[in-house]
Amino acid sequence: MLIIGIDPGSRLTGYGVVDVSSSQPVYVASGCIRTQPGELSQKLAQIYAGISEIIAVHRPAEFAIEQVFMAKNADSALKLGQARGTAIVCAANHGLPVSEYGPRQIKQAVTGTGAADKHQVQHMVTAILGLSGTPQADAADALAIALTHAHARQGLVHSGSFGGRRSSQRHSRWRDFRPD
Dihedral, CA atoms, 29, 162, 126, 117, nearest 10 degrees? Predict the structure, then answer.
């Protein structure tokens, strides 16, 4: 079963696809959707088209996305929320169930600490998936979101090693994608 993780952004949206059919998650694809400068509405259309194409190519069964966090700049937070909403609508229009995870929850699941930085997330995603190289930060975050969902759906509490205990909670090729 394939899971797609999305790290939304109005300029750069990371995506990561993992296969969780076996006991160990397997890397399928990751990258970034880079929007062209211009009006926000056009950027949102590019994000929608990019995610739609990724879904069509990989046919994931489930969709996971990072929740909005509080930003210092209200305008940035609003744009992030709109990019996130666009991604969720795209998933819903493709019939995918959507799960949401907070930044601290994702970092805790992948690294063992909710205060991890981007480099720690990149390192652990690389190690967990056995990648030969380190993915770009936004792609690594998207892969971390997909990994978090893979383990949350199994009801595991994350210790950073993906060993975990039971919990009552339910919840290669890298490229930049530029829609035409």
Answer: 110
Would you state the pLDDT for residue 71? 62
Q: What is the pLDDT of residues 81-118, one digit of tens each?
A: 999 999 999 999 999 999 999 999 999 999 999 999 99
List the catalytic residue out of 19, 53, 66, 100.
66
Catalytic residue status for 138? yes
Kindly write down the DSSP assignment for every residue of 93-133, as one continuous string: HTT--EEEE-HHHHHHHHHS-TT--HHHHHHHHHHHHT-SS
The pTM is what? 0.85
Classify residue 84 by its DSSP letter: H
Instruction: Give the whole-angstrom CA distance, residue 36 versus residue 24.
Output: 37
Both structure tokens of 106: 């994702």
Q: Contact 29/176 with Cβ under 8 angstroms?
A: no
Instruction: Say which of 7, 39, 75, 117 is annotated catalytic.
Output: 7
Q: Is the pLDDT of residue 162 over 90?
A: no
